[in-house]
Fold this sequence. Notes:
It is built from four helices and seven strands; from the N terminus they run βββααβαβαββ. It is of the alpha/beta class. The protein folds into two domains: 13-50, no CATH class; 59-145, Uridine Diphospho-n-acetylenolpyruvylglucosamine Reductase, domain 2. α2 runs antiparallel to α4.
Amino acid sequence: MFFEGALKPSVGMLRPDSSRPGFGLECKLPDMESTGCMATLLHEEQIRWARPRAAEYPSSEAKALEGELRKRIGGEVRFDDGSRALYATDASNYRQVPIGVVVPKTVEDVLVTVEQCRRYGAPLLARGGGTSLAGQCCNVAIVLDFTST
Length: 149
């Protein structure tokens, strides 16, 4: 269960939440009794879709994706360590090394990249100038670099 062990019976009250089918437990803390604020705890299987992906994308999948992109698009496909390091940061303090970088030349390149990322289950990230201050363009993903498009 998500947040399991976060609440002790002596601190709050856990009971089945029958008002919301499919949800786990309702948690009502004593200090929130007067406000009526409640939190619902979800079971693991209900939040699996929201879990972050692994910090490392499987290298065999990355190699296959790289090969498929090189065959099918006219833009640049960069999966080398140097290119990945260049795109690992933006104007923020965040550092996330991407799986690879695609610099599309045409709209067709973008469509093929999206199609292949979906096929291989690779996250996709569109990037402009890399000037974000909160790490929006840093992730373990295929980075679509639109700076020269």
